[in-house]
Structures are given as structure tokens and as C-alpha cells.
Design goal:
With 368 residues, the protein is of the alpha/beta class. It folds into 3 domains: 1-51 and 93-113, no CATH class; 125-185, no CATH class; 191-364, 3-Layer(aba) Sandwich (Rossmann fold), CATH 3.40.50. Helix content is 37%, strand content 22%. It has helices at 2-22, 24-28, 31-35, 101-112, 146-160, 206-226, 246-251, 260-274, 295-312, 329-338, 356-364; strands at 41-47, 94-100, 124-136, 179-199, 229-237, 241-244, 280-288, 316-321, 345-350. The strands form 2 sheets. Strands 3, 4, 5, 6, 7, 8 and 9 form a 7-stranded mixed sheet that branches. It has a two-stranded antiparallel sheet with strand order 1-2. Strand 5 (229-237) and strand 6 form a beta hairpin. Helix 6 crosses helix 11 (356-364) and helix 8 (260-274) runs parallel beside helix 9 (295-312).
Length: 368
């Protein structure tokens, strides 16, 4: 019976997983999903899955099943008064299931065919970990293995004839005590930092910022699935750049001009001070609507990307969010300079929320 239940549960989970993958684009582009995130699980509404259940009616009621019936007899409860007006639309059966964020991210990786990240070889260091694998007859009391101690005392009492099954008292002697032993192992470990930069000038509206928030959430989730230790920093800029916290990053709107190089220079300063490229995997992401103050500043940005970021970052990613107020020129200038020649410099155009999935694949599909 237990095996049958486990089989049914596994089949149900497979159905749910299939439904989630079918609707993955909608979930990724929905801020509601992020709002339902708990510490470990995300609540996901799954439509069109009917859960079988018994329905009981009045035992005194006659009808098919409690008497003789003819072919074509109705199986409902007969003529009853109803309330409200009749509708012509089918009802929606919505089931909310809790799915771990890790499993959801794995589905994202499967759907987008994202390769696992290959960290920079020079950014690896050895982490020391205590591994408990042995048992010894002596050791500190904090490492005493109570189960092994009890079993040893029980075996001794049975062997010596001291054990009384009618009055079982197991009292360990000193020689019965067993202790866990450990050895230190060196494990490869990688550190990573994500540095988000965003244009917050007047042309970047709330919808553009929401697109950035949603996309960066899934980028974060995927990279955290790949690295055990990861840090995140945030930079906003108009004509001047400054580092801010996460909440400020997504909700600030300025009205000044746009000088993109100010963000790139601040990002460079943060990396130089806190993240040695020989020890860290570095992921700068810049989001903008493509407006920049001048062609001279764009050339300065291109120079920084070419001479600095292409050499120290795993990838440098630029995402251009479509805006009715933005010219989109910056992406054209980057494509003219870098094109497809360098896998380290990745550019993506995000027209709307439906474009988030494609953009994530653009940024993470290289596996770097």
C-alpha cells in the first residue's frame, strides 16, 4: 500500500513539474511569484489539475445508486432551487503547490538548456572541512558516539551474562565508550560576486525597473545554485553613480542625465578594493534603456569594457530594456565594437517581460 502511494505521489509530482515547465515563462515574468517566496519554498498556482475526491449527499435522497434507474437518468441531485445568475464560463481549478527554489531553478536550467558554470581556474582556493568518518575508544566527551557506546555496553552485558531482559539496564563502563574521530580535508571552493548596475534616469520607468528586478532575481538564483559563496553589490547611476542597497536599487528614480561611464568606474573601484580577480569569479551586469550623454562617454565605456572588464570578469553583461523615451543607441555602439567576437562581452535586448527568459539564456548560456 505504501509503495502504491509513493508511486502515485511520484506521478503527481511529475504532472506538477510538467505544468510548471509549461508555464515557466509566465512564472519568471511575474512579480507575484517572487512575492510568494519563503525561506526555502515558492508557492506556485497550478491551474487545470483536478484533485479526485469523494462527494457525499443526503442518505435519504432517492436516485440512481439507491434504487433502480433507467438509461439516461441524471446523476445529479434532482430539481433544486439555485441562487445567482447562470454563467457561460468554465470554473478554474487552481492548486497552489510548494516547490523549492532550487528545484524551480533546475527547471529553468533545463528549459533554457543552461550549462553548469565553469568557474575561473585561478579563482579556486582550498576550504578546510572536518569530516567525521571514524570511531575510536578515546576522545573528548563532546564527540562521544552514544549509539555506539550503548551497543558496546549491551554486547558486553550479553557476553558476560549480566543482561536481564526482564529488567534491562544498560550501564556503559569506561571501556564501552566510543568516540567519533575526524580528519581535515581540503575541498575546492569558489567565490563569486555579482555587481548590478542600473540607469535610474527619468527615461527608465517603473516597468523597466520591474523587468530588471525580475531578471536579476533569476540570474541571482541560478548563480547561487552554481556557487556556494556569492556576494551581491548594487550601483545606480544617472549622471553620477553611487552604491546602494537592494531596495534602493529597484525603487529609485532620478531625473538627471545619463553618464554610463560613472557606473563602470565605480564598479571598477569596488572590484579593485574588494574582489581580487585571482580569487573571485566576477559578474558585472548593467541595465539601461540605451541613452548616454555623449559619444565621447560611450567611447570611454567601450575602452573600460575592452581593456578592463574583458580581462577580469567571467562575463560582462549589458541588458538594454526597451523604453519609449530611450534611443537604444548604446547597444548599437557596443555591437559595432564587439559584435560576437568575444564570449566575455554579452549583450541582450529586452523588449518586454516576455523577453526575460531569452535574455537570461543570452547571459548565462555560455556557462562562464
Amino acid at each position: 500500500m505504501a509503495l502504491k502511494i509513493e508511486q502515485d505521489l511520484a506521478r503527481f509530482k511529475k504532472i506538477v513539474r510538467g505544468k510548471i515547465k509549461q508555464e515557466l515563462g509566465k512564472f519568471v515574468s511575474s512579480g507575484e511569484l517572487i512575492g510568494k517566496q519563503g525561506k526555502k519554498f515558492v508557492s506556485i498556482p497550478i491551474p487545470r489539475i483536478d484533485i479526485p475526491r469523494f462527494r457525499f449527499t443526503d442518505k435519504q435522497q432517492d436516485g440512481v445508486g439507491q434504487g433502480e434507474g433507467d438509461v439516461g437518468d441524471s446523476l445529479d441531485q434532482g430539481d433544486q432551487d439555485g441562487q445567482g445568475q447562470a454563467g457561460n464560463q468554465a470554473g478554474q481549478h487552481v492548486l497552489e503547490v510548494d516547490v523549492s527554489l532550487e528545484e524551480l531553478v533546475d527547471m529553468l536550467g533545463e528549459e533554457l538548456e543552461l550549462p553548469n558554470i565553469q568557474p575561473k581556474d585561478n579563482a579556486k582556493f582550498e576550504a578546510i572541512k572536518n569530516v567525521y568518518r571514524g570511531i575510536h575508544r578515546s576522545g573528548p566527551e563532546s564527540l562521544r558516539h552514544n549509539k555506539r557506546t550503548y551497543k558496546q555496553a549491551l554486547k558486553r552485558q550479553i557476553f558476560t551474562g549480566e543482561y536481564n531482559p526482564k529488567d534491562p539496564k544498560i550501564i556503559p563502563y569506561k571501556d564501552d565508550r566510543r568516540y567519533r574521530t575526524y580528519k581535515q580535508e581540503k575541498l575546492p571552493h569558489y567565490k563569486a560576486v555579482i555587481i548590478y548596475m542600473m540607469d535610474v534616469s527619468g527615461s527608465m520607468g517603473n516597468e523597466q525597473k520591474e523587468i530588471v528586478r525580475l531578471e536579476s532575481f533569476w540570474i541571482d538564483a541560478w548563480l547561487r545554485r552554481q556557487y556556494k559563496g556569492i556576494e551581491t553589490r548594487y550601483i545606480i547611476h544617472d549622471a553620477v553613480a553611487r552604491e546602494v542597497d537592494e531596495n534602493t536599487f529597484y525603487h529609485t528614480r532620478e531625473s538627471g542625465g545619463t553618464i554610463i561611464s560613472s557606473a563602470y568606474k565605480l564598479c571598477q573601484k569596488i572590484i579593485d578594493e574588494d574582489y581580487d580577480p585571482m580569487q573571485w569569479n566576477i559578474y558585472p551586469f548593467h541595465f539601461s534603456d540605451g541613452d548616454n550623454w555623449s559619444a565621447n562617454d560611450t567611447q570611454e565605456c567601450v575602452k573600460l569594457i575592452d581593456e578592463y572588464y574583458s580581462k577580469i570578469a567571467n562575463v560582462f553583461c549589458y541588458g538594454q530594456v526597451e523604453s519609449e523615451f530611450g534611443s537604444g543607441q548604446f547597444l548599437k555602439d557596443l555591437k559595432e565594437k564587439f559584435g560576437e567576437r568575444d564570449e566575455t562581452i554579452i549583450m541582450s535586448q529586452i523588449e518586454n517581460r516576455e523577453g526575460i527568459l531569452t535574455s537570461i539564456k543570452d547571459f548565462l548560456g555560455k556557462g562562464k
